[in-house]
Amino acid sequence: MPASHFESVSVRNLVKTYHTFDALSDVSLDIAAGEFLSILGPSGSGKTTLLQVIGGFTGPTSGKVYFGDTDVTNLPPQKREIGVVFQNYALFPHLTVAENIAFPLKARRVGRADCEERVAQALRTVDMEGFGDRPIAKLSGGQKQRVALARAIVFEPRLILMDEPLSALDKNLREAMQLELRNLHKNLNATIIYVTHDQREALTMSDRIAVMNKGKLVQIDQPKALYRAPADHFVASFVGEATLLPVTRLGDRQIGLGGATLRTPDVTTDGKLFVALQADTILLCDDAEDDADSNYLNGTVRDLVYQGESLKADVVLDDGTAIACRIASHHYNLRSVPELGHRIRLKMHVEDTIVVPG
Amino acid sequence: MKKLQNLPLYGVVFAILFFLVFPIIVVVIMSFSDSRFLTFPPKVFSLRWYESYFLDPAWMRATRNSFVLAILTTILVVPVGTAAAYGAHMCKMAIMRHMQLLLLSPVIVPVIIIAAGLYMVYAQVGLLATKLGLVLAFATMNLPYVFISVLAGLRSYDMAQEDVARSLGVSRLAAFMKVTLPQIRPSVMTGALFAFIGALDETVISIFIAGGENQTLPSRMFMSLNDEIDPTIASISTVLISVSFALVILMSLRSPKKANG
Average pLDDT in the B50-65 region? Predict the structure, then answer.
């Protein structure tokens, strides 16, 4: 196994200001060589600006970018040795597939025989053998994606940047490509910075996820930690599709919700608190059940919506708070599905009772 | 039923087309006349007015001048106009709107005013009746065609391609030449064509600042109309019309093939 050409990336105190608007305010970030890091955030959070600065397409107002130990802050993109894949692929439509992939090699004056060999190799890597002579216009979305990828890796870059590369694909293809990208990342041992607004995509593929909001880095963590221990209200609502409800603090590990007392895994802070309820961590249970690891809630079923693989139940707790829970719609469950207007008892594991500061 | 309803529409379109094309047809037909004067319809047909055009050294020199000037103008105005359009497209500053208006002013301001202004400035700096002076004037007048055409081309072009090209290892200029230019080529060609034709029959400017050695075809045609009206003018017009049409047809034959590739 030859030493990888991929490098680590360090971003130090990046600030990018447009007029009076801070697109990036003091962002620092370290990405290890061979790491798959997703930058997750809503539109306008600064994630694309961060990618643009790392790619050298826009200069920061202040701050530094390092690849390995080299300061690249003032290098133009053509001197940075980065593979870039954009949302719309940005393939060159006037060139064939092979010519597109050969573009970075020609820019580096690679000899013809070597060039052909490496293009063929890149096409094999992305499973597109035999497509070299095709015009770009004759490719499907997924194929374009692969060609863009091949073009980004063929010249052995130090880093691969991706800006929502799968968002134009339909759901099934997108999920297949996510797994392929993950495998490719493993095989190449590539440093990948991946910008997305899709939390599931980020959770599926990343070693770590950096969550951004309003130009700031809010939290950077492994997917599981991010999901289990969101740093604040924003991360909890963005990463888990959670419903956030204001709760009152009753003790170090106790909060009040809907007339019930819930235990929490960690000591809660003072101040405004929210509980992040994930619809699929709340389960139906019997009236008699009483387990030391569970929190229990009582309420009335207000609405039941069939959503294919599951039923979504809207439940009103005793104090009028509305929550949602999800009941898998397979036949084992049919007998226990509650009816409209009936009282039900719900349980939630203490470890799933995530409380975040407002 | 549908066809009957559309009948008035067809009528209007046909009338407009006829109105546009009829003068041209008349000129072309008159150019083949045998008569001493411009008459329509001609009683006898001949090529004598083409002879009097092609065999006259003064007409030929004016023709050569016009084509040389038009070619030089195109060579100058295409890169400048393309660069201006690129700049206008990339620049996000608010002042750019006003700059664009400034660039388009040659087609907005009445030509006669520009011509008179040029005459006075050129008289001061000694550019009157020089090739340089004419090329500069024609370039100013025809810059908007290239500018607008290329700007329209860039608007439907995905600039991310240039970023990607740069990330793949080429300079910004090379990225433009290798990736952007091949894709906006139809717009550039259209702009160049209009600039060329525009420079070829730039009349008012020519009347003011062309002359002597550097007499242009349109200004000589205008002068000769003052002296005598003979069908040589019609034959020259026919030649010019043919050249313009040939260029436009050539362009439209080329472009659909490009679009499919």
Answer: 93
Q: Are A245 and A56 in contact (CB under 8 A)?
A: no
**pLDDT over threshold 90, residue A229:** no
Q: Is A19 on the interface with B (CB under 8 A)?
A: no
Q: Are A141 and A164 in contact (CB under 8 A)?
A: no
Q: Which of residues 46-65 of A touch B (CB under 8 A)?
A: 55-57
Average pLDDT over residues B56-66: 94
- Amino acid in the structure at residue A342: H
Total Cβ atoms within 10 A of residue B42: 17
Q: Are strands A21-31 and A70-71 parallel, antiparallel or unpaired?
A: unpaired
Give A241-357's CATH code, choosing from 3.40.640.10, 1.10.1040.10, 2.40.50.100, 1.20.120.530: 2.40.50.100
Q: How far apart are CA A98 and CA B226, in angstroms?
A: 64
pTM: 0.80
Q: Predicted confidence band at B259 (pLDDT cuts at 50, 70, 90)?
A: very low
Q: Give dist(CA A199, CA A193) in Å, integer.
A: 15
CA B56 to chain centre: 25
A57–B183 C-beta distance less than 8 A: no
* Cα(B168)–Cα(A95) distance, integer angstroms: 15
Domain range A9-228, CATH class: alpha beta
> What is the CATH T-level fold of the domain B58-260, as seen in this structure?
MetI-like fold (1.10.3720)
Domains in chain A: boundaries: 9-228, 241-357
**Span B216-246, pLDDT tens digits:** 999 999 888 888 778 898 999 999 999 999 9
Q: Is the ipTM of this complex over 0.85?
A: no
